[in-house]
Specification:
215 residues, Rossmann fold, four-stranded mixed sheet, four-stranded parallel sheet, carbohydrate metabolism, glucosamine-6-phosphate deaminase activity
Length: 215
């Protein structure tokens, strides 16, 4: 593992965004061979998305041939709720770039059958040949997506009960009221992230100014 340390959050965000841009440009995606990107939510990646939007606005990066899969979504939160991860992604990234709506994949936390929704999400990832690059935001306790420390290394997309510490940490997005934070979520598993095609797996956190990459 390589640990990259930058002086502050903005520097880390730019470093990660630049790396993503370079990977996409090197891949040279087309309609028949899109670049498949796994994306996180939360406070950590906001700066990364801001820089990716700037790259797009400057004509340095197109999302036209990029397919995305988001890592998680709350259960029971309306899709148009300001704190749903659907809303988050369109607010911070998708509405500002030229990505095709049909290439955006976010778990449906309001599906009638949540287990089936998770299974279908896995099938969609397999149908495009897997994830080329998965970004991982690291939470205060080390969780990635809603995989808490100790989650099975073989886990796939599934329903998860959120740890109390995660609920408390996320309360800042819900008027600091833990009763407003959903206690269930859908999340991709550790095993799915481990299936990423590249050996270089960037993971970053806002609480520490670092970017970790497996090598």
């Amino acid at each position: 593992m390589r640990l990259v340390i930058r002086q502050d959050y903005d520097a880390v965000s730019y470093h990660v965004a630049k790396y993503v841009k370079e990977r996409i440009m090197e891949f040279a995606p087309t309609a028949n061979n899109p670049f498949v990107l796994g994306l996180p939510t939360g406070s950590s990646p906001v700066g990364v998305y801001r820089n990716l939007v700037k790259f797009h606005q400057n004509g340095e990066l197109s999302f036209k041939h990029i397919v995305t899969f988001n890592m998680d979504e709350y259960v029971g939160l309306p899709r148009d709720h300001p704190e749903s991860y659907h809303s988050f992604m369109w607010k911070h990234l998708f509405k500002h770039v030229d990505i095709l709506p049909e290439n955006v994949h976010i778990l449906d936390g309001n599906a009638t059958d949540l287990d089936l929704e998770c299974h279908r999400f896995e099938e969609k990832i397999d149908a495009v040949g897997g994830i080329e690059l998965f970004l991982g935001g690291i939470g205060p306790d080390g969780h990635i997506a809603f995989n808490e420390p100790g989650s099975s290394l073989n886990s796939r997309t599934r329903v998860k009960t959120l740890a109390y510490e995660t609920i408390v940490a996320n309360a800042r997005f819900f008027d600091n009221d833990i009763t407003k934070v959903p206690n269930l979520a859908l999340t991709v598993g550790v095993g799915r992230k481990g299936d990423e095609k590249t050996d270089d797996k960037p993971a970053f956190g806002q609480h520490n100014n670092y970017d970790c990459k497996d090598e």
